[in-house]
Amino acid sequence: IYPPELSDLVYICDRAYSNGELLDMEETVLKALEYKVTIPSAHSFLVRFLKAAHADEKMVQLSCYILDGTLQSYKLLQY
User: Fold this and answer.
1) pLDDT at 42
2) What mean pLDDT is predicted for residues 29-33?
3) From CA 12, how far away is CA 72, in angstroms rounded?
4) φ and ψ at residue 35, rounded to 5 degrees
5) DSSP-derived secondary structure for 26-69
6) Residues in Cβ contact with 6 at an 8 Å cutoff, skipping those fewer than 6 apart
7) Is residue 37 within 8 Å of residue 30, measured between CB atoms?
8) Using an 8 Å Cβ cutoff, are 42 and 50 in contact?
9) I need a surface site. Which of 2, 8, 44, 55 has the fewest CB within 10 A?
10) CA-to-CA separations, 50 to 7, 22, 34, 75, in angstroms, rounded
11) How confident is the model over 52-78, as pLDDT tens digits?
12) What pLDDT sits at residue 55?
């Protein structure tokens, strides 16, 4: 899933807003949220890494198994 491009957003709003206005509003919203939009997790990183590595099903299952095991270790939660 890819985010829409700025030109797509301008088109969707029927050109009621310019590129600059949309970017200014995005900045306003992000500042209001204090840039707390999402929390990176080990699982999301693993999924992206395995996809980039073209891992087979066995590697995906083993990787997820090991990652799930790390959730049981308090010392590993800092990573």
Assistant:
1) 85
2) 95
3) 46
4) 60, 20
5) HHHHHHHTTT------HHHHHHHHHHHTT--HHHHHHHHHHHHH
6) 19, 22, 23
7) yes
8) no
9) 2
10) 32, 34, 31, 24
11) 999 999 999 999 999 988 877 777 766
12) 95
Name the residue type at position 74.
Answer: Y
Sign of the CA dihedral running 47, 48, 51, 56: negative
Interatomic CA distance for residues 78 and 56, integer angstroms: 29
pTM for this predicted structure: 0.50
Q: What is the pLDDT of residue 28?
A: 96
User: With the CA atoms of 46, 51, 56 and 57 taken in that order, what torsion angle do they form, in degrees rounded to the nearest 10?
Assistant: 60
| Residue 23 token pair | 């970017």
Average of per-residue pLDDT values in the chain: 89
